[in-house]
Design goal:
The protein has 212 residues and is of the alpha+beta class. The protein is built from seven helices and 13 strands. The chain has a single domain, classed as Metallo-beta-lactamase, Chain A.
Amino acid sequence: MALKIGIVPVTAFQQNCTILWDDETMLGSIVDPGGDVPDLLDLLKKAGVTLAGIFITHGHMDHAGGAAELSEATGVPVTGPDIADKFLLDDMEAMGARFGLVCRNCTPDAWVKEGDIVTLGGAEFEVRHCPGHTPGHVVFINDALKFGIFGDVLFHGSIGRTDLGAYGNHEQLIESIRTKLLTLPDDFHFICGHGPDSSIGAERRSNPFLQD
């Protein structure tokens, strides 16, 4: 198989919703459908991709606000994040209203935890629990492809915010990055929750939040 990847910025927050699919079977997965669900459905139809999985890195509305709607429209189950983010997923409707966005609360069909293996677009990805931005944040890693989806843990030149609620923890986030992500090789590339993608080597060398 050849894994194909597309990035679709959604909502006013321009969150990087990721679509992954096997170009042989045309079965695909969506990671972090934060909103704009009609647009996502239209893109899947135009690309000829049959949705087989919906995955969430963490419980913020810009990443999970459209998951319930997408699942209802397709009959596809929602997987993730870690159950520690349940309180955020239970409050998304109210959270969205505070920002003028229409979101729906989401109860995943399955939670994930450290070390689980999930299938995204026909490829197996390891789940790593990376709390700090939110308590239940997870990332998805494929060692063979040297590729991952990191949500709001690590960005090009930055890191996830820890000031969005009493649950944010800067020290915990830095520990997650150092022990779960910086152990990956320099040529490991990843998609961020917002903005351009990056590599572990680039962030190890120049990310100001990771310099001793």
